[in-house]
Structures are given as C-alpha cells and as structure tokens.
C-alpha cells in the first residue's frame, strides 16, 4: 500500500481532496438545511403571497418594503459533478440544492426582517436569482448563486 502512495502521489492527493471536499460540503449543506427547516417552522404563520392585495380602509396601519438576499457558493465537488453531468446531459442535481438553499434562505431573511418590524403579512413578493462569477469554470475562481426576495410588508391595526 505504501508503495502505491510513493508511486502515485498525485492520484492520492486528488482522491484525498475529493473526499475532503465531499465530506465538508455535505456537512455544511446538511447544517444549512437544518437551520432553514427550523426557521421556516418558526415563521410558518407569516403569510407571504405573490399577488397584489388590497385591504378595507382602516385595516392597515403601515406598509413598507422588505427584502432578504443570500449568496451560496459552489463547492468543488459539486462543480466536478456538474461538469460530469454536462458531458452526458440531464438534470444537474448538485446545482438544484444550491439554488433551493439560496431561495429559501432569501425568503427567510425577508420574513425575519418583516417580523422584526412588526409586520403580519407580506404581499406582492418577488424572487430573483442571479449567478455571481460567470467565469466559474476557470481555475482559481469560485462561482456563486444569489437569490433576493422582496415584497411589501403589512402591519395591521388591532
């Protein structure tokens, strides 16, 4: 076994880095999803709708813009999986969880901002997604995805 290490050090370094990248990325992603699920359960009562709304006169005390954004980086292992998927075609699952986490985190941050300011509902919510670092496939650059959620927070009269 030691002879293989000496004979192919680059191969073992690559395997070690892939294993390390996979393990660290999986742990970070699971930790983030746990945080998202916990915070979503806390904020489940705050309604968020994508439609514009109107309320009877005297029902709304005030309204204001709220927003939340999140930037999630692509780890090297997921990038490697995406490159392999691009060769054969099909769904790129490694990027789907990345976009899902960014969108859910952005909506949560928007809801948390609305709750801090006493709002009970968000109407006319919009969600945008953008890529940061378009040269992500080049060496020594990291690509990221950004999601921003914004809407009108409503504080009701009691």
TrEMBL record:
Alphabetized UniProt keyword annotations: Membrane, Transmembrane, Transmembrane helix
Transmembrane segments: 12-29
InterPro entries: UPF0145_dom_sf (IPR035439), UPF0145_YbjQ-like (IPR002765)
Domain of life: Bacteria
Family to which this protein belongs: Belongs to the UPF0145 family.
Name assigned to this protein: Uncharacterized protein YbjQ (UPF0145 family)
Species name: Geothermobacter ehrlichii
